[in-house]
Amino acid sequence: MxxxxxxxxxxxxxxxxxxxLAYVAALAGGSVAYLDxxxxxxxxxxxxxxxxxxxxxxTTSVPKVDLDKCTGCGLCGEVCQFSAIVSMNKTVLxxxxxxxxxxxxxxxxxxxxxxxxxxEIGRVQTGAAGQVRFLQGLLNIGQAxxxxxxxxxxxxxxxxxxxxxxxxxxxxCPVIEAVRGSCYVLxxxxxxxxxxxxxSLAIETVRELGIPLGVVINRCxxxxxxxxxxxxxxxxxxxxxxxxxxxxxxxxSRGMLxxxxxxxxxxxFERLIEALRRExxx
Length: 282
Ligand code: SF4
Ligand code: SF4
Hints:
This protein is α/β, with parallel strands linked by helices. Helices cover 36% and strands 28% of the residues. The chain has eleven helices and eleven strands. The protein has helices spanning 14-27, 44-48, 75-79, 104-108, 147-156, 173-179, 193-209, 226-233, 246-253, 258-261, 263-281, and strands at 2-6, 32-36, 51-65, 85-88, 91-94, 114-129, 132-139, 162-166, 184-189, 213-218, 237-242. The protein has a nine-stranded mixed beta sheet with strand order 3-6-7-2-8-1-9-10-11, with helices on both faces. A two-stranded antiparallel sheet has the order 4-5. Strand 6 (114-129) and strand 7 (132-139) form a beta hairpin. Helix 5 (147-156) runs parallel beside helix 6 (173-179). The longest helix has 19 residues, at 263-281. The protein starts with a strand and ends with a helix.
């Protein structure tokens, strides 16, 4: 079972839910993998405290231009859909941070002046947090291309009975890359106007991908009832409603999981795992 934990916006408690699910599932037995695909700001490690074993660089393809061979025809700039290569006055400028590695420019160059080069965009670290197999992607500072790194994290993941993917926030390409291939998407939201707005965008995105989804309403006793009403009106399953509890927030600030605090919270996440199994089994 591969569950993506996502949210329309940051700060909803997505990582809190994802890490607690992984921790509690591992306590119950069976193999569990946690993939931190929030590669611009991975912080699952703060709570799961893994021992990192491997640390491998991830590279993507970028063009390398030999100006001695270049005739200044401009074809590379015309082919590139991402403005990552520009030809002007027999000078060719490249912008690797915009390059999608599509190979268009070096295949199109009639003078053979462009070859494929590699740039490091980040790292994939793998390890273990107790019984949880732990993986995280770390995007290099200044890098904009997180999707290839997310793909690398997912490729490096071991087979497991339960895989939890901690997705980036939002609804853009990195989220789609993280969610792709999951059997269910759990969207974590909060009952505020911003929460509702961004949840509705996230639901549209996941539905486009054809993946079943459900919602966790975090801090359910704050805000108003419109988000719950929206879910009911649109037949969206609400798998859990989690109140705002000071003791949990204090534990969070110390890097502790709610499930480590007491059996009460552990049982809450056990029920959420059961609800996910039922949803996936439908
Ligand atoms: S396509 Fe090749 S020859 Fe033409 S401008 Fe680009 S690098 Fe130069
Ligand atoms: S590899 Fe593709 S995206 Fe990158 S510069 Fe060449 S044409 Fe543009």
